[in-house]
């Protein structure tokens, strides 16, 4: 089996990937998240996931590389990841009492040597969209939350993997891993297409 690289050093994504029982290396991607003007949030999530995976391809030429990213959409607008606690609080204020979409993309880049179907690209991606309704929140509640989780750099200004569930009235998707940032079922589907399947019978000698 080819070595596996996760283009992320996020402890939350690493904890999710650990559940699959694969040996892998976690490496920070050499990729800057700059959304092209006018690009939809869904397309942006895919672009960033693929970009993270491809950014490590030259240095990890013989590995399967996993990239992942999220983009939050409110009324068709992409909300940038907050760079400060004040920005996180402002975003939560906008989301308060409303439904938003969280697009979670995962991409896998295959190295040379992996057999592909005719015309199949070496980088494949899938996107999961989760709809979340934030409960009505007052300013003091928002400030208390951002001080607890300090969600700088997290889409929407929240971390579902920490105290984030207290913020919501409803979550409309079964894949909690997508909310954290690494949708596992689509990832397993992509890895199987490139020949990674721990449940496959061992090859006979």
Report on this model:
Strand 1 (4-6), helix 1 (11-18) and strand 2 (25-26) form a beta-alpha-beta unit. This protein has a single domain (4-193), classed as Maf protein (Alpha-Beta Complex), CATH 3.90.950.10. The protein is elongated and about 60 Å long. Helix 3 (85-95) packs across helix 4. Strands 1, 2, 3, 4, 5, 6 and 7 form a seven-stranded mixed β-sheet that branches. The chain has helices spanning 11-18, 41-55, 85-95, 139-149, 176-180, 184-193, and strands at 4-6, 25-26, 64-74, 77-79, 99-109, 123-134, 168-172. The chain has 205 residues and is α/β, with parallel strands linked by helices.
Q: What level of helicity do the residues show?
A: 25-40%
Low-confidence stretches: none
Class derived from helix and strand content: alpha/beta
> What is the CATH topology assignment?
Maf protein
SS summary, helix count: 6
Q: Quaternary arrangement of the chains shown?
A: single chain
List its traits:
elongated; nucleotide metabolism; alpha/beta; EC 3.6.1.-; seven-stranded mixed sheet; 205 residues; cytoplasm
Outline:
The protein is α/β, with parallel strands linked by helices and 205 residues long. 29% of the residues lie in helices and 23% in strands. The active site is at residue 69.
């Amino acid at each position: 089996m080819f070595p596996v690289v996760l283009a992320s050093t996020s402890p939350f994504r690493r904890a999710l990937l650990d559940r699959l029982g694969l040996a892998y290396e976690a490496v920070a991607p050499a990729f800057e998240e700059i959304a092209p003007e006018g690009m939809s949030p869904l397309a942006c999530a895919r672009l960033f996931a693929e970009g993270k995976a491809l950014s490590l391809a030259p240095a990890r030429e013989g590995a399967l590389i996993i990239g992942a990213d999220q983009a939050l959409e409110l009324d068709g607008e992409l909300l940038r990841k907050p760079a400060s606690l004040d920005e996180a609080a402002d975003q939560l204020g906008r989301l308060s009492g409303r439904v938003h979409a969280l697009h979670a993309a995962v991409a896998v880049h295959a190295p040379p040597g992996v057999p592909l179907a005719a015309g199949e690209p070496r980088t494949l991606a899938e996107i999961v969209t989760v709809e979340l309704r934030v409960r009505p929140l007052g300013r003091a509640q928002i400030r208390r939350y951002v001080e607890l989780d300090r969600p700088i750099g997290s889409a929407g200004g929240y971390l579902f993997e920490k105290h984030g569930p207290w913020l919501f009235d409803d979550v409309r998707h079964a894949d909690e891993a997508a909310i954290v940032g690494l949708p596992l079922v689509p990832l397993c589907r992509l890895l199987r297409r490139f020949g990674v399947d721990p449940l496959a019978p061992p090859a006979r000698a």
